[in-house]
Amino acid sequence: MRQGQTQVFNQPQQTWVMRSLNLIPPFLTRPEYVYNRSQIGRRIWHQVYKGNPVEEVTLPWGAPILIGSDDLIGDAIWKTGVFDLIVAELLLRLTDPGELALDVGANIGVMSSILATASGNQGHVIAFEPLPALVTKFRENMELWRSRLEWNQVTIMPTALSSEAGEAVLTMPTGFSANRGIATLEAGLPGEQVTIQATTLDAVLAPDTVVGTMKIDVEGHEYSALQGATRLLSSGSVRDIVFEENNEYPSKVSSLLESHGYEVFGLRKGLLGPQLITPTVSKRTGETPNYLATRKPSRAIQRLTAPGWRAYTKRSHS
Fold first, then answer.
1. In this predicted structure, what is the pLDDT of residue 93?
2. Where would you tag: which of 48, 219, 242, 306 has the fewest CB atoms within 10 A of its CB?
3. Going from the N-terminus, what domains does the chain have, and what CATH number goes with each?
4. Closest CA to 44 of 83, 84, 80
5. What's this model's pTM, rounded to 2 decimal places?
6. What is the pLDDT of residues 90-107, one digit of tens each?
7. Measured distance CA(128)–CA(104) in Å, rounded
């Protein structure tokens, strides 16, 4: 393959319905509207009649959640029904019932809820979120899940993951009030700071722990967090890792994972479903640069080949 050329590893079979969608204007063929058509009406309603600052909504997979409409995550859920659709879809397809899953940088718990849906009540989700204000909101959502869905499989750890344990400084940079997911442990950014506790994943999990899926989004601190999981990564104890990376491939993060035996794929949101693509193709207009690192690439390709977006059709189960 020539340099810069994109290869799609999981190519869904196109039905005549899917092919006909290619004739419709691009805005109306976004997966968020094709697979969740009622969302168009809800988006219009919400823009005309602004709701309360904090409102309870139900995510497409059936989990209730409290969101702030003035925050990036809440705004995305109001407009499309889902925040970061491609990440949610991968977690749903790659996580098996009964597995342990990790949500690193959990915020208010959106991705934890889909991991809990996929792993079921025989599974376990450990969520890491160090910012006290977000931990409070996450716990409020956990109470909703316990009371409405009888979920007890989610554990929140109010700590950050890094390369070593101890106190750390979390910075809330400019723009944090509108996007509460940009707090970072990386030094050098101006903004309000708070001292939090950090630990390592190797210290939290026992040596014989097996993890199905891990989502990690910690605003530039992914490399340090993964350095703190050297034992788990080198032993192959974590099968699939979905991570955000704003640096060009190969980056420090992707190189670290590849050195431990992972194969790295780029992710792209296609109309027919999530696409695993050549990781060197990193410029995706309007999309967050997410990647999949997996110890079982054939399994991942097979899991992601079926067309559609299950995040809009899957329903939680206990």
1. 97
2. 48
3. 16-312 (3.40.50.150)
4. 80
5. 0.89
6. 999 999 999 999 999 999
7. 5
